[in-house]
Give the backbone structure.
Amino acid sequence: MTRITTRSRSVQSKVALITGAASGMGRATAFLFADEGAKVAVTDLDADRVAAVVDRIRNAGGTSHGIALDVTDADAIDAAITEIRSELGPIDIVVNNAGVGAGSPVDNPSFEDEWFKAFDVMLTPHQRVIRACLDDLKASGEGRIINIASTEGIGAQRNMAPYTAAKHGVVGLTRALAVDLGAHGITVNAICPGPIVTGMTEAIPDDMRETFARRRTALRRYGDPEEVAHMTLSLALPAASFITGAIIPVDGGLTAKND
Ligand code: NAI
């Protein structure tokens, strides 16, 4: 039929940059964006793991370019974005996803190291990547920024202060840049995943995972990375043009549950 409505639910030919895209939610997001016709810039620490994701996309007939990028390296971010622009075109969508576990009791000597690890990997790079892509995002007219925070960006678990503070920072950065960039039609949103089965949580024994999920989530289970990727895609759509500054839990009901 001829379309009746006007707003597009397609990311076809959009260029999407994803950090930490060799594993877990980043990889699931890369695969989903590729499935939907986006040109996907896959970045992560290790070149071989990046290449495996890029190969999978290309073998399936998609378009992707991979770069080994440590997001704690400011110069490398600028170089990566220049390379992506020349390989795939100007960047329309940024997904700040790279992350590490970082926790410590507040009275432990490791606290300071964990604090800087959390901020160096999961907050400072977000603004650097965004600023490096800003000209492209402005020119796009439909620029989209999606920051992967956490339910730790809304509440707090015990002995996780470095991680929790960084993720609360991601929420603050998201709201602040939504306000600052709205005039350019750029939307900035954060997703707060709950417990998801990824590289970050695979070391947790199955029985502990199950107990936690049953006690804490309404759906009584861990989530799958793809379930988060679908929210990321939704926020990246041209049709998501009036959603900005939103902090969206994808958490199986963890933040809703209070019993
Ligand atoms: P993951 O461990 O499967 O993937 C994270 C990726 O980030 C890895 O491939 C890793 O190599 C990459 N990375 C780490 N340091 C990096 C650096 N300096 N530069 C570039 N890449 C780097 O874990 P997951 O769970 O997929 O993590 C994705 C995001 O989701 C993270 O920001 C994490 O904090 C967040 N998150 C995860 C939850 C979970 O239950 N798995 C819950 C809530 C949020």
In short: Helices lie at 24-35, 47-59, 74-88, 111-122, 124-140, 161-181, 206-216, 225-236. The longest helix spans residues 161-181. The CA atoms of residues 152 and 164 lie 5 Å apart.
